[in-house]
Amino acid sequence: MRISKLSLAVLALVISASAVQAQTNNASITATAAVQTPINVVGAQQLNFGNVFPGVNKTVAATDLTNAGRFDVTGQASTPVTLSFTLPATLSSGANTMPIDTYTGISALNSAQTGGVAFNPVTGATPTLSGTGALFVWIGARVTPATNQAQGTYTANVTMTVVY
Amino acid sequence: MKPLTSLVIGMALLVATVPPVLGAQGKPLNVTGMHNLTFGAVFPGVPRVISRTDPANAGQYDVGYSKFAPIQITFALPAVMNGPAGATMPLVFGANDGGYSSPETITSQVGFDPRVAFATTLDKNGRAAVFLGGTAQPLASQRAGNYTATITMTVTVLP
User: Fold this and answer.
1) CATH number of the domain at B22-157, please?
2) ipTM of the predicted assembly exceeds 0.85
């Protein structure tokens, strides 16, 4: 009789253990991502109008490798990017201002501007980085000094933003 | 005393032969990871969203058990993916990133919030597929490289 009681107890334990064990199971998967090279932008050369005379407009073309403004971009090879610009309407010298307009742009995959593609900086551009992840961007513009333009050094910032 | 010892050993052997996870109808509760949640190429500063209905990239688990069994699904969802040199990338799951499919097809899902427990009932076949989407949120300064995280789904049979 003692054996029978013990058997039942063991059997109950077995059933209980099996029932609990049957209640749950799990599995795992993996989330994966490959983060590409971050974009880096450098202002490589100033947009330089040099000497400007009152009443005489002056234009620096985007093709002017000496005076056009230049940005150098690096990032993930062979990947399209979007360029956008903040373009000032005036240059400043203290309280004096001088209009700047008629912006032009060229992007190329090399610093010699070979194979460059013209674009309008006002609307931006969507070029593709080179096979080594490089891009060069030039900006030209025109200044229109007034006939009574005050003498001085006039400056403003041109900002280019690059995103994938 | 000897018969008692034999009986206890006999019961112990019986326990050892019982499959570890059995349903009311003797079927095992199977949960299998079928497909990874794949974000692919991700660019710094640009969130990458994978829909649970994306056949190429959504995560997928399969569940098999007894027909009409009530079950509860829960996830262990990581907040980040781990990358090179200890770098991490935020990983976010939304209220509609879980998908439950009795016919086991990605085109026929019932959406649910994977962040909270989801209770349902298996169909007459006792099978289902569970799909998972999500969003990788790389920082603008996110370090380049491969990132991974483990996502575990647990299925509990409800009484």
Assistant:
1) 2.60.40
2) no
